[in-house]
Amino acid sequence: EKSATWVEPQHDLQFLPNNKNQFLYQTDRDGYNQLYLYDTNGKLIKHLGHQDVIVTNFTGFNANHSKAYYIGASNKGLERHLYEVDIKSGKTKQLTTSNGVHNASISPTGKYVLDQYSNLSTPNRIQVIDTKSGKTKSILEAENPFTGKINLPKIEFKEFLSPDGKTPLNARITYPTNFDSSKKYPVMVYLYGGSHAQMITDRWLGGVGYFDLYMAQNGYLVFTLDNRGSDARGRDFTRVTHRNLGENEIADQLVGIDYLKSLPYVDNDNMGIFGWSYGGFMTTSLMTKHNSTFKAGVAGGPVMDWKYYEVMYGERYMDTPQENPDGYAKTSLLNKADQLKGNLLIIHGAQDPVVVQQHSMDFIEQCIKKGIEVDYFLYPSHEHNVRGKDRVHMYNKIAKYFDTHLK
């Protein structure tokens, strides 16, 4: 298999239990990661894909091996459902129907599905589905665990159109607790933006993190958008980042940011941004390349120059520095330190083996040379992520940083 961008085989071949000369192969070569039936001579027998559903987890075969099952991403990546495909005919059936993110398995006979799912308003439901009749029997329906404990903020999904004029983008807004549209609120944009990650799904609370809830409880409007380049939307959605990491991703983020600026209850003078790893790269990129938007930012474990990053990731998406010198120069943040405006806090784990400390240290050095003020905090015993009890310390530091500069 060849591609003008990259190929990344991540899934085992699944040999048919009743035919050792045939196997299922997963690839996104036709646009979406789907199943293909091959024989061991390399001949394609049948494409077993369904519409634009992306196979995220192959779950096995039925008892007589005539059908295969998988969890697939659908509804523009927001949902996960269980699918059944007849290997001989290629006919596909969706076995779970309630909107949301499903973790489901089939009985050996194929007659029943054990289904566990959640969505924006459903904390957790477990049920058995009769695949023939479609009837369901509820086993467990969890109550909202926050009832009577905290006042949950309103969480809402949004959809925007990418600057390419054709690609829908998923986003999520977490409103401040006791939201009043006649008031103005500071903003925290929380983002990641890199390959193989997805922030917005139709799961309980929309996949929002507890730190986001904490910030909403403390009077912030929290916004997150899945830009092109992120996961579960297909090949073309991802490949636009090739040789130019951060360019199309930032263009998409700016669509969401422009929407925020148009809202009467958003305080445009007090907007902050926070991200870790690829999100730290995106945060620093936006604080330098689009330096009039954010008054404060926090970049955790940020990639500052892709030539320092591990080759299995960096050169997959950027090619080598020798092959793509312009792309590396454009995406490097070391030559953009003098463009930094606003208050930027960089956090790094001193033992980080992934985004090595050289990234942030070199950026700090450039800031010093250019006379640019920047804040820096090191967690001495942590690697790429701050874990355990110290994570509470980290989130407290981030919250105080935004409170200091945005309120």
Record keyword descriptors for this entry:
single chain; 407 residues; alpha+beta; eight-stranded mixed sheet; four-stranded antiparallel sheet; 8 helices; 20 strands
* Overall morphology: globular
Q: Kindly provide the radius of gyration, computed on alpha-carbon positions and rounded to a whole number of angstroms.
A: 23 Å
Number of strands: 20
The biggest beta sheet is recorded as:
8 strands, mixed
Give start-end ranges of low-pLDDT stretches: none
Find the structural class using helix and strand composition: alpha+beta
Q: Give the averaged pLDDT, no decimals.
A: 97
Furnish the topology, listing elements before pairings:
Blueprint lengths: L13 E3 L2 E9 L6 E6 L4 E4 L6 E8 L5 E8 L4 E8 L5 E3 L6 E6 L5 E8 L2 E9 L5 E6 L13 E7 L6 E7 L10 E7 L18 H8 L3 E5 L9 H5 L7 H16 L3 E11 L1 H12 L6 E5 L10 H8 L6 H7 L11 E7 L8 H13 L4 E5 L9 H18 L1
Parallel strand pairs: 15-16, 15-17, 17-18, 18-19, 19-20
Antiparallel strand pairs: 1-2, 2-3, 3-4, 5-6, 6-7, 7-8, 9-10, 10-11, 11-12, 13-14, 14-16
